[in-house]
């Protein structure tokens, strides 16, 4: 069973809330208690120090008249629920703000030793076992006269009161935490709307794609990572859908283009074999068989070339060569066809020499394919212009005819494999529909561009770029 992200998110939210509340309670309680101890003990020590500096106490610590200043001691204390003692050098409590000790009847403190306090001015405990009911926060300040210690002032504060203050402050801290935690619940709402819902749409889309419905579009248009993922998935499905259509069309076109010449070859061979075609007429039909075999050979070579370009088996052999010279050689190849049809090949070349960096064999194939197309679709007594120009470290090669042209609605499809325009079918009996696909693949393999400008009934111009050699 797949554990949903929303459930994980909720569990994490609850866990963080529980852990956060626990940490606030434990750590907050300890911090508040420590702060209160330091603040209260500091205030108590200041009070004890002021009492120890009182003249009456410094000179009458052993006298019965201490009972007269008992009221004053109570008023000096900064905190309620405190007990103030006057302790003499013998460790006896001679005065207390509580009624359990009276002047003239001091109480001994067992093991009273101020030296063990060291640098600390307060302690938390039962003060040498005197307090039995609850712990106290106790401070002591020495009473001195003429550099001699005559006794001590001790002030005791009930820890129960400190714990009550700590509880009040902790309750406020916990309340604030719960408010913030409650506000953080809005994250769940935001997650639900902006993360969970788009994820559900993406999940549905993936299920549709896996079931073969590649035309489904994921309806997520957010400007974030999920929107980016949805757009990429939609693009991928569209690409796969178009590839599937292309494969079906490819198989259909290959089957059609192979079946037609094979049917002719098979029919004529069987007719000659069974005597339907007499011996004196066999030369004619053998010529037709050779013609159809040439079509098959050309189609097979084109498919092999495209296959090599598709899977990058054909590594580019980049070298420096004179593109003007390559154009002259390509034009010379078609001199016979052009002379027979009275077509003029006009070369407008930039300079005597123009050096490019490319794979010369592949660029020669591009020139042959473009020239073959131009001648094939040009009327007799017309002109084909081949021109080279240079600009910004690039060479521009143009092949322009004055033939039938290409309809505007067909321009975007001329690069498709096996595609032939309706106007070309009557003129291109031996064509395969692969020539321009091969041209485009070769030019793109060189990281260059090729464009077409065409007007129906006026002519067509192909322009491609090459890297200029330095």
Give the secondary structure arrangement, pairings included.
Blueprint: H1 5-52, H2 55-59, H3 70-76, E1 82-88, E2 92-96, E3 107-108, E4 122-125, E5 136-145, E6 148-158, H4 159-184, H5 186-210, H6 225-273, H7 282-310, E7 319-322, H8 323-333, H9 335-341, E8 344-348, E9 355-358, H10 360-376, E10 383-391, E11 394-400, H11 435-445, E12 450-455, E13 459-468
Parallel strand pairs: 8-10
Antiparallel strand pairs: 1-2, 1-6, 2-3, 4-5, 5-6, 7-9, 9-13, 10-11, 11-13, 12-13
Helix pairs in contact: 1-4, 1-5, 5-6, 6-7, 7-11, 8-10, 10-11
Description:
- There is one protein chain.
- This protein has 470 residues and is of the alpha+beta class.
- It has three domains: 5-182, Beta-Lactamase (2-Layer Sandwich), CATH 3.30.450.20; 201-312, Helix Hairpins (Orthogonal Bundle); 319-468, Histidine kinase-like ATPase, C-terminal domain (Heat Shock Protein 90, 2-Layer Sandwich), CATH 3.30.565.
- Helix content is 50%, strand content 18%.
- It contains eleven helices and 13 strands.
- A hairpin with a 2-residue loop joins β10 and β11 (394-400).
- α1 runs antiparallel to α5 (186-210) and α10 (360-376) packs antiparallel against α11 (435-445).
- The radius of gyration is 51 Å and the shape is rod-shaped.
- The model is unreliable at 422-430 (pLDDT under 50).
């Amino acid at each position: 069973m797949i554990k949903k992200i929303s459930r994980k998110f909720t569990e994490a939210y609850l866990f963080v809330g529980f852990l956060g509340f626990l940490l606030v309670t434990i750590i907050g309680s300890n911090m508040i208690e420590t702060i209160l101890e330091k603040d209260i003990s500091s205030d108590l020590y200041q009070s004890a120090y002021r009492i120890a500096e009182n003249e009456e106490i410094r000179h009458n610590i052993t006298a019965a008249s201490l009972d007269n200043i008992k009221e004053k001691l109570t008023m000096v204390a900064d905190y309620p629920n405190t007990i103030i003692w006057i302790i003499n050098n013998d460790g006896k409590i001679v005065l207390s703000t509580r009624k359990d000790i009276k002047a003239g009847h001091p109480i001994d403190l067992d093991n009273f030793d101020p030296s063990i306090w060291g640098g600390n001015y307060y302690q938390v405990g039962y003060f040498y076992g005197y307090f039995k009911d609850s712990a106290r926060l106790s401070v002591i300040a020495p009473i001195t006269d003429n550099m001699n210690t005559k006794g001590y002032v001790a002030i005791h504060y009930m820890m129960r009161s400190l714990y009550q203050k700590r509880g009040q402050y902790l309750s406020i801290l916990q309340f604030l935490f719960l408010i913030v935690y409650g506000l953080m619940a809005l994250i769940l709402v935001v997650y639900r709307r902006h993360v969970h819902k788009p994820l559900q749409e993406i999940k549905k889309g993936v299920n549709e794609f896996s079931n073969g419905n590649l035309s489904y579009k994921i309806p997520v248009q957010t400007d974030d990572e999920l929107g980016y993922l949805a757009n990429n998935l939609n693009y991928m499905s569209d690409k796969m859908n178009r590839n599937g259509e292309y494969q079906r069309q490819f198989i259909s076109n290959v089957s059609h283009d192979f079946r037609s010449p094979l049917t002719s070859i098979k029919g004529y061979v069987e007719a000659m074999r069974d005597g339907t075609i007499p011996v004196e007429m066999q030369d004619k039909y053998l010529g037709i068989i050779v013609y159809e075999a040439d079509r098959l050979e050309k189609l097979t070579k084109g498919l092999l070339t495209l296959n090599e370009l598709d899977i990058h088996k054909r590594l580019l052999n980049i070298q420096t060569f004179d593109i003007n010279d390559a154009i002259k050689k390509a034009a010379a190849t078609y001199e016979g066809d052009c002379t027979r049809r009275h077509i003029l090949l006009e070369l407008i070349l930039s300079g005597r020499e123009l050096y490019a960096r490319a794979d010369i064999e592949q660029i020669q194939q591009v020139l042959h394919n473009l020239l073959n197309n131009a001648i094939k679709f040009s009327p007799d007594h017309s002109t084909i212009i081949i021109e080279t120009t240079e600009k910004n470290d690039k060479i521009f090669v143009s092949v322009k005819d004055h033939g039938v042209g290409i309809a505007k609605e067909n321009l975007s499809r001329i690069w498709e494999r096996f595609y032939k325009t309706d106007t070309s079918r009557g003129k291109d009996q031996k064509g395969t529909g692969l020539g321009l696909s091969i041209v485009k693949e070769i030019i793109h393999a060189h990281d260059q561009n090729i464009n077409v400008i065409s007007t129906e009934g006026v002519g067509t111009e192909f322009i491609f770029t090459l890297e200029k050699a330095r």
